[in-house]
Amino acid sequence: MTLFTELQMDEQTLQAVNEMGFEEATPIQAEVIPKVKQGHDIIGQAQTGTGKTAAFGIPLIEQMEEDEAHPQGLVLAPTRELAIQVSEELNRLARYKGVQALAVYGGQEISRQIKALKRRPQIIVATPGRFMDHMRRKTIRPKYMKMVVLDEADEMLSMGFIEDIETILQEVAEERQTLLFSATMPKRLQTVTSKFMHQPETVKVKSKGLTVSNIEQRYIEVPEKQKFDTLCYLLDITPPELAIVFGRTKRRVDEVSEALTRRGYAAEGIHGDLKQAQRDKVLRKFKQGTIDILVATDVAARGLDVSGVTHVYNFDLPQDPESYVHRIGRTGRAGKEGIAYSFATPKERSHLTFIEQTTKTKMIRQDIPTYAEAMHGRYQQVVNKLLETIKNEDVQDLESAAKTLLSGHDPVTLVAAALKMNTNEPERVEVHLTEEASLRPKKPKGGGRKSRGNQQPRNRKKKPYKKTRQPNERYGNKRKKTV
Ligand SMILES: Nc1ncnc2c1ncn2[C@@H]1O[C@H](COP(=O)(O)OP(=O)(O)OP(=O)(O)O)[C@@H](O)[C@H]1O
Ligand SMILES: [Mg+2]
């Protein structure tokens, strides 16, 4: 156990950490914070939800000069939502210092960001595409950056992002400190990292597998056509506080969230084709609990930290074991418990085994739940609601009506009828989902991943960064499939 007071942090950061409710440092924080302060380049690997953000955030904040005219710290993140979240966490940590973080990401008006940059934030948290836009416009000058963090580093160095990252790093001062963080760090990345890191130290928090032990992992072998009813039955049997359902494609996400809504669940979808304002709105509703089910592509798989997510459902298995680790890691964070269900079609058995082997975990097999179990779950919810009403509400005005009813009817029959009346039968509403093909194991070769679809071929020659580009030219917009 390491206390934050043992990590030679300054008073202001200690106070902020205290107010955030952190009592002791997590293992990755205890190991990384002193090492970063000593000036090392770090490759940090620790399981999902174990506080990697503060592990790089605290030393990053503490090394910023408060009066510098240019940003000196850069955090790159793969999604807009993650960039926002990381900047918020940094600002909480920096609350008592004269240090500020600003998130810049695609989908938000660039003029608004340029205005915000005038307030001279010390730290920029960015998605790579938008950061390059600012680089070209010279609204951010990377050469003053003395620390660069790649959050979700393996994702950032995969095929979809590597060229952008190289372009950015070429512009950042050579004597910078570079930090890489992720819950998954495939060995094949080592060759890539040696190119732009200076004698990096690897800090890997010891664990049995890649996933945290407080997530109960289950799988259900279920034919494609039965997946949706299975999901609904599970939701009925154990209603989650908040749940994320991962689908393979954007169409899938749209169809599943619509179907859930039709069946009466409070669900909405999030994926890369939605306008940023819509993505923000959906995530906000989820965090507030206005909706309790978020249906998502892998856009929500990495880094997102929403407290109260008790369940993750892999409606479709992910292609990569790494993606499995990150998806299920949206629950069981900061020591809390969580449950992850993965649906595998009979043809996907071997893919499931491949995921288990790579992540060094074992999923518990569970049978497809039955209609009767789902119905029981639904009754139970009505019973709970009834008991809550008795506890929390004044029902006096209905008591004489109740007495009249009771005088003419058997009380058990009466309550049973009331329960039945209030319970909707599952499956009553017909829904239609387009079928997805089953997956087969696909072992990744070399340095990149293949899941990002229509990206450029991996060994394509690197495009030199041209300073003559027009500022408003969309950089490489033909290049990658968003999720
Ligand atoms: N020392 C601590 N004590 C208690 N809670 C902490 C501590 N450090 C971080 N947390 C909280 O734990 C949660 C998870 O942290 P964080 O998002 O940094 O995890 P992560 O390791 O980056 O996970 P992922 O791999 O999914 O990105 C956050 O809500 C964070 O505020
Ligand atoms: Mg993280």
UniProtKB/TrEMBL annotation:
Transmembrane segments: none
One GO cellular component, as annotated: cytosol
Biased composition (Basic residues): 440-469
Protein name as it appears in the record: ATP-dependent RNA helicase CshA
Entries under InterPro entries matching the protein: DEAD/DEAH_box_helicase_dom, DEAD/DEAH_RhlB, DEAD_box_RNA_helicases, Helicase_ATP-bd, Helicase_C-like, P-loop_NTPase, RNA-helicase_DEAD-box_CS, RNA_helicase_DEAD_Q_motif
Domain Helicase ATP-binding: 33-203
Key words of the record: ATP-binding, Cytoplasm, Helicase, Hydrolase, Nucleotide-binding
Region (Disordered): 426-483
Entry-linked PANTHER family: DEAD-BOX ATP-DEPENDENT RNA HELICASE 47, MITOCHONDRIAL (PTHR47963), DEAD-BOX ATP-DEPENDENT RNA HELICASE CSHA (PTHR47963:SF5)
Biased composition, class Basic and acidic residues, residue ranges: 426-439
Top-level division of the source organism's lineage: Bacteria
Record-level Gene Ontology MF annotations: ATP binding; hydrolase activity; RNA helicase activity; RNA strand annealing activity
UniProt catalytic activity: ATP + H2O = ADP + phosphate + H(+)
Domain DEAD-box RNA helicase Q: residue ranges: 2-30
Enzyme Commission no: 3.6.4.13
PROSITE patterns associated with the record: DEAD_ATP_HELICASE (PS00039), HELICASE_ATP_BIND_1 (PS51192), HELICASE_CTER (PS51194), Q_MOTIF (PS51195)
Motif (Q motif): 2-30
BP terms from Gene Ontology: response to cold
Family: Belongs to the DEAD box helicase family.
Taxonomic source organism: Alteribacillus persepolensis
Record's keyword annotation contains Cytoplasm: yes
Annotated ranges, domain Helicase C-terminal: 214-376
